[in-house]
Amino acid sequence: MKILIVGSGGREHALAWSLRRENPGASLFCAPGNPGTASLATNLTAAADDLDGLVAAVTSHDIDLTVIGPEVPLALGLADRLRTSGRLVVGPDAAAARIEASKAFSKDVMAAAGIPTAASCTFTELGAALAWVDRHAEPLVVKASGLAAGKGAIVCSSRAEAAHAVRAMLGERQFGAAGEEVVIESFLVGEETSLLALTNGRDIELLPASQDHKRLLEGDAGPNTGGMGAYGPVSIATPALLARARAEVIEPCLEELARRGATFSGVLYAGLMVSDDGTPWVVEFNCRLGDPETQVVLPLVRGGLTRAFERIARGEAPSPLDVDPDAAAVTTVLAARGYPDTPEKGAVITIPDDLPAGVTVFHAGTARDAQGALRVSGGRVLNVTAVARTFAEAQALSRAAAERIEFNGKQFRRDIGWREAARR
User: Fold this and answer.
1) What is the CATH number of the domain that holds 149?
2) Do 142 and 243 belong together in one domain?
3) At what angle do helices 10-22 and 305-313 cross, to 10 degrees?
4) Whether residue 78 is found in the same domain as residue 164
């Protein structure tokens, strides 16, 4: 079997690690991949947004199954092009990928399907948006409608902060095309949980629930990022909650997309805010595996991922996954100095050779220089994932390994899973 993974981050390294574990004899490719995937697969030169190059690579290597990691190639229509040429692909067509590529579209889908989500309004004109903010109760959330690499949602404690965010998007164009349309919504109260559903557009297989940590600093302070760490499974994601989320969130979303002629095939991500009464309110939908959620969820899957991917790519119901019921995973993101705004690149990275069993380091923003040295090349640099029999052990292993990895300017949170630790 020949498998291509599209993307270059920690999510794609985790995908390569998981698929290699299930298929030791497969021909595995990554485009463009990173130094971590290079030990598991053949890295190709095509960038994740180079649709012509990716289609050519699929043809030249006669790829059997393509798994698309990031949202940008999905929004650009890579899955459409591959399916049109008769190739099996995991990822939605561009029409269905709008569930992430346009927050305004996503809100419209949720309203039509009766999915619980925050009340909101959408704006393209600065004056109208500022007038609405001036009348809105505090706190509130301002979101760039388009793709903003996970940094387009700004939680504002006051109307003044919200007005500043609106001006940055609609007035100063700091978010580029992604901020030409903004969604302003009420602030949801509760605890976040991420659900990932493998689906052919109708049938669903849920991966273990996880929880991301979006804020840069410990105690959930500081600016939003693409994610500073995650853990799973999450104790608040009880069977009852998962059943409600399936019935009230996942299924209605898929049905509404299909009604609009945009059947979703791939991995649907539902970012939930679980209120005190157990209601799963939707914060956002994504059209792909989450990052860094993938780095804790896939290590909990002992088998069946490849088969499930194959089946949904053929339009069939995903087959069951073999999930370890007695394991927990925690991943700690090591970020560059200056992340998320102006990350410093170029620092040399040292990863010890004797990290303990159960710890895997997934590369996210790394590159090798001409001499072969591993260097920082992005904002989120490494994901330090630990799997253990208990959450407390996994948390301690991940944190201790993160301490030992070295590069100048390293920053990370030492409290990943702090809510879970408090509960236990």
Assistant:
1) 3.30.1490.20
2) no
3) 100
4) no
Report which of 143, 149, 144, 152 is spatially closest to residue 180, judged by C-alpha positions: 144
- Give CA torsion, residues 152, 156, 162, 164, to 10 deg: -80
**Which amino acid makes up residue 136?**
H
Facing residues of 384 across strands? Answer: 332, 361
pLDDT score recorded for residue 61: 98
Non-local CB neighbours of 294 within 8 Å, separated by 6+ positions: 10, 11, 14, 15, 196
Say what the pTM is: 0.96
Confidence of residue 224 (pLDDT cuts 50, 70, 90): confident
Task: Tell me if 379 sits within 8 A of 335, measured CB to CB.
Answer: yes
Q: How far apart are CA 61 and CA 242, in angstroms?
A: 40
Rounded to 10°, the helix 94-101/103-113 angle is 100
- What separation in angstroms does the CA of 56 have from each of 18, 43, 59, 74, 360? 25, 15, 5, 17, 32
- Same-domain pairing of 156 and 252: no
Shared-domain flag, residues 51 and 85: yes
Helix (H, G, I), strand (E, B) or coil at 6: strand
What confidence tens digit (pLDDT) does each residue in 269-306 have? 999 999 999 999 999 999 999 999 999 999 999 999 99
Q: Which two tokens stand for residue 369?
A: 């220089």
Instruction: Tell me, yes or no, whether 99 lies in a domain.
Output: no
Q: Residue 409 is part of a domain; what is its CATH number?
A: 3.90.600.10
Question: Does some domain include residue 419?
Answer: no
Please tell me the total count of domains within the chain: 4
DSSP class of residue 40 equals T
Range of the domain at 158: 119-186
